[in-house]
Amino acid sequence: MDWKRFLMPEVPYTVWKKCVVLSTVVGFYTVGYLYLNYTTIHAEKFYDVSFAFEQGIPFVYHLVPSYIFVYFLVIALYLAIDSDELLMEAAKTFVTVSIIHFLFFYFLPVKMVDRPVLVPTGGIWNDIAAFWFWVDEPTTLFPSAHVSMSFLSAYYIGRVHRRFGIFCIIAAAYVGASVVLIKQHYVADVIAGFFLATAGYQWFHRKPYIELAARFKQRLNQAF
Asked: How far is CA 81 from the centre of its chain?
């Protein structure tokens, strides 16, 4: 990999534009997520998407730091983007996927009931887990936004740096496994998050809607 190109890509647009666009997208997602996270905790009804075998999955609080690995993937995406076209495509994909997440969070609230209550004890890993659980309420689970954002970042990074993109996909899968093991998400949340990210990426990358619109227009012309 050309690390110089990755860290300081020669882009045909201003870094300022990239900062503004990605900051807006991240801000949109963060505000929406936190708002729904703190409001849906008071929902009158929560839906159960868990599987029976998940009762036997152990709680591994040492993996809590890996839960925030998604933010490193987003930073890597910022460094990797090297064109205006890719920047705007990624922005539209992230915003669209975020909106779909928000709709699920609001209309299909899911709550993690197996997450233990942690209190600071002086142990570094336990205290990190306790702090994160205090910040992030056990709601806004289905689909997993952490998994979606991790895989979306990895997919777009792979468009620019194929080998590093493969590594990022593995890292995204690791995020998916960790959120289950720290009792932050159910398995169904992770699966749904992965499929949502993949579908969103394919929709904006392959642009099937253009072909569908062309077929619809052709049929209208034939009919009239």
From this structure: 17
